Amino acid sequence: MKFDIKPVPPFIFDLSAGIFSEGDERIQRYESGSFWQVIRPNRKLVLVSLRSTGTVDEPEISVNLMPDEDLSDKDVGTAGKIVRVLFNMNLDLLPFYETMKGDRVMTKITQHLMGLRNPSTATVFEALVDSIVEQQISLKVAWSLERRLIETFGDELSLGEKTYYAFPEPEKLASSTIEELRGCGLSTRKSEYIRDLAQLIQKGLDLEKFKEYKDQEKIIDELGQIRGVGVWTAELAMIRGMSKLDAMPADDLGLRRCISHYYCADRKITGDQASRVAEAWKGWRGLASFYLIIAERIRIEI
User: Fold this and answer.
1) Domain 2-90 classified CATH 3.30.310.20?
2) What does the alpha-carbon distance between residue 70 and residue 86 come to, in Å, rounded to a whole number?
C-alpha cells in the first residue's frame, strides 16, 4: 500500500531521519534515502518505509506499508497519522525560526538546519520507557539496551526472509519478570521502574492524556508520582513523546556540553547556567536544544 504525505514546509527529511542512520535495521533505520520502522495502526503490525519525493520548501513523503493485505481504509488513515507523529510533520517551524532571530548563534544554526524536525515516538509510553533506560548512562549504551529490550519483548513481523520488531506493548512488559528485564542489560532498579509503569497502564493509567496538557509543570508533577520518573526523565519524555517543544532537560550532560560549546567557549557549565542561556528560546527550548545537538554532531561552527 503506497500513498503520499505532504508535511508542513519547510521539512528536510534526510537530515531529520539521519539520526537513525546507525539504528538496528530490524527495528528502526535510515539508509540510502529510506527510513523504515514497524508501527501498529489499530494494533496491526505494519512495516512502514518513507522516502522523500519533494523538496525542503515543497516537501512530499512517499509512504509504503507492508504487508497491506488486511489493512482497511481506517488502518491506512491511522498509519498516516502515526507517520506524521514520528517526524512532527504537522509542526509549523516558522514561529520557531522567528523566535530564534533574537539569538545570533541560533539564527546561524537554524539557517544551516532549515527544515529539521525532531523525531517523536508513536506513544508516550515508548518515550517514557526510553527515558528511564537512558537515565545516568551514555546514549551509546542506552541504545544498545533499548534494542535488546525491543528484540526480547517486542512483537515480531516477518516479511520474506527478514524479521522486524515493534516496540513492546505495556501488557508484555507488565507480565515480565525482573530477571527477564535484567537479561536485557537493565539494572534491577530500572527493570522495576519499567515493569511498574507497564502495570500502571494495565490498571488504567492514560499516558496519552498528557499530550493535551498545556501546563508543563503539571505534567512533570503528575509524571513525578510514578516510581522512577524524575524531572529529567519527565522532560525528556515530554519532548520525545508529547511534542512539548519548550521542555528542556537542562541537567542533561550532553545538552550542557553543546550549550557550552556554542555559548560558553567550552567551559563546564551547570544546569542553571544552561537554563539562563535558553531563556532566549522561551517557547521552543526543547526544539532549540535538539538543533544544538545536531549542529554539534555534524560539526557546524559559528
Assistant:
1) yes
2) 23
pLDDT, tens digit, 9 for 90 and up, residues 246-287:
999 999 999 999 999 999 999 999 999 999 999 999 999 999
CA distance to 13, 61, 84, 99, 235, per residue, from 57 (Å) = 11, 13, 17, 20, 31
> What's the pLDDT tens digit per position in 50-100?
999 999 999 999 999 999 888 999 999 999 999 999 999 999 999 999 999
Whole-prediction pTM = 0.95
Domain spans of the chain, in order of start:
2-90, 92-116+243-302, 124-242
209 is written with which cell numbers? 492524556
The Cβ of residue 95 has, within 10 Å, a number of other Cβ atoms equal to 11
Is residue 255 within 8 A of residue 235, CB to CB? The reply is: no
Q: Which three cell numbers stand for residue 170?
A: 505495556
Nearest Cα to Cα of residue 17 among 39, 40, 34: 34
